[in-house]
From TrEMBL:
The lineage of its organism: Bacteria, Pseudomonadati, Bacteroidota, Flavobacteriia, Flavobacteriales. InterPro entries: Nucleoside_phosphorylase_d, Nucleoside_phosphorylase_sf. It catalyses: uridine + phosphate = alpha-D-ribose 1-phosphate + uracil. This is Uridine phosphorylase. It comes from the Bacteria. Its EC number is 2.4.2.3. Residues 30-266 form the Nucleoside phosphorylase domain. Pfam families: PNP_UDP_1. It comes from Arenibacter arenosicollis.
Length: 293
């Protein structure tokens, strides 16, 4: 199948439309961050930077640490942006831009999200690190794809019943991390969690400013949900989209969360920049360990 110019959109230099990078610009290991300013906070730990490109909120640096080539890219906020980034990363890896056809030999990317998150369990401390083993998407993105085979319907049905989820809302979906990739990041510095990916920052995460919420008890319902000793631990806005699309496209993904807020305790980190830097250094060390001469 040949992709038309309205489906696979390329810029004049043959770079992919939104990310503005070429296939040769992309490493097999990709770190995603939400904030474009965080890209340089990651790439400062590269031994060498070969590439810096940017367009809109999508900033990309590609370089090296030890013998490992790495790309770090900003996604912006939300699973709508994740839909752009994951599809275009896969296009860069697995579509021939000259013939506009799928390559016979596929590249598998390792996608590592480094992001901030808020805990909804009182025992998860601010400034701690959490790796999302499961993610429940409250956003609806995966329902636009043929994705039932990667979802966990028993957990989903238990969640719908527990929360009295309204039928006119998008049905939540549950997906998991790339287990073999996650093994690289297992550490006593990181706990495993079950992350809820929200469609927004204020109302969808239970924040009340001037607008009344449809359900002011939703965060309490999320926190009290338990399925087979799996409890929802934290809230953020990208993980379920990354996990779902990565799995569908044949890539591996993990989401590493820096807990900057504890919602039930009403606490926010007094040193979020320092905590995030510690998570970045931890991640870079784990990536580099397998590639030390």
């Amino acid at each position: 199948m040949k992709f038309g110019s309205s489906e696979l959109i390329l810029n004049a230099d043959k770079s992919v439309y939104h990310l503005n990078i070429l296939p040769q610009d992309l490493a097999d290991t990709v770190i995603t961050v939400g904030d474009p300013d965080r890209v340089k906070l990651v790439s400062q730990y590269f031994d060498k930077i070969d590439l810096k490109k940017g367009k809109r909120e999508f900033l990309t640096h590609t370089g090296w640490i030890n013998n490992k080539r790495i790309t770090v890219i900003s996604t912006g906020v939300g699973t709508d942006n994740i839909d752009i980034v994951l599809n275009e990363l896969d296009a860069l890896a697995n579509i021939d831009f000259e013939t506009r056809t799928i390559k016979k030999v596929k590249r598998q990317l390792d996608i590592i999200r480094i992001g901030t998150s808020g805990a909804i369990q009182p025992d998860i401390p601010v400034d701690s690190f959490l790796m999302s083993e499961y993610a429940i998407g409250l956003d609806g993105l995966l329902h636009f794809y043929d994705s039932l085979h990667i979802q966990h319907p028993q957990i989903q049905q238990a969640f719908l019943k527990h929360t009295n989820w309204l039928k006119d809302k998008s049905t939540p979906y549950v997906v998991t991390y790339g287990k073999s990739l996650a093994q690289r990041f297992m550490s006593d510095k990181i706990q495993l969690g079950f992350t809820a990916t929200n469609v927004g920052f204020y109302g969808p995460q239970g924040r009340i400013l001037r607008l009344k919420l449809e359900d002011e008890n939703m965060n309490a319902k999320l926190a009290s949900f338990n399925y087979d000793d799996k409890r929802i631990t934290n809230l953020e806005m990208e993980t379920s989209g990354i996990y779902g699309l990565a799995k569908l496209l044949g890539h591996r993904a993990v989401s590493l969360n820096c807990i900057v807020a504890n919602r039930p305790n009403g606490k926010f980190s007094t040193r979020p920049d320092l905590a995030m830097d510690e998570l970045i250094k931890f991640t870079m060390t784990k990536i580099a360990e397998e590639f030390i001469d």
